[in-house]
Amino acid sequence: MSNPPENSAPLAYENPAFLNSPDGRILRIMAEYQEPLARFRHEQIQDTVVFFGSARFVDLAAANKAVEELGQSADEVGRKKARADIEMARYYEDARRMAFLLSQWAALIPARRRRFVVTTGGGPGIMEAANRGAREAGAKTIGLNIRLPFEQYPNPYITPSLNFDFHYFFMRKFWFAYLAKALVIFPGGFGTVDELFEILTLAQTQKLAKKILVVIYGRQYWERLINFQIMIDAGAISPADVELFKIVDSPEEGFEFLRDGLTKHHLGAERPRHVAEVVPEIAKTNP
Question: Which CATH number does the domain housing residue 231 bear?
């Protein structure tokens, strides 16, 4: 086949000027739908459990090391932050532990596709902790990254073939929710609160075609931040709405709630313990 003339126009799908222009936006959006879908199919991912939480928390060893390096020369602001880092490091360790327990249990579910895969936003902090715990359990684990001017970079514990990088926030949010059978909400900032209330709103308004379990971790943190009783007293939400989530205070409590709820709503009556047990391959969903 002869080469095209030098003055021939580029093919549309090989034209960077078009693909990166406003007119090419629809193709970029579709790419952030189709490319992850293809990878999830290839990796045989059936469903996920998504962990949210602050990107700014570090593990306990790192927090203690930072305090040692701080010395006596730090000002009050620096000492206050160091103390907060140590206090919040327990959430990093708890997320790591819960993800480990969940992944260890999910590995015993006999199915051709992977069930309840630990998924995060792919960055540091609580996201890193959950990916780390899943990896320590020998499981594959997903990271849905977003390009930001600060904070966000892929942590080293994500399975390489399941490490994604998104430009559009709404496409990233779609993939958080689409495969999820449960959400685990650790202490965090604006982004964490956004994800929590978005899912609670979808559940409250019955826009979800499946049961999504919602675990809120850390009663002390969340009850200082959000007073759900005020919402009830004001008539902004109904008393039954607080049954859309469960507040827990230990990795074991959170895992047991997830295990029992996922088994009940998405695996059937039997709780898988050994490979020999038979359970449905496809998760059940609400009509």
Answer: 3.40.50.450
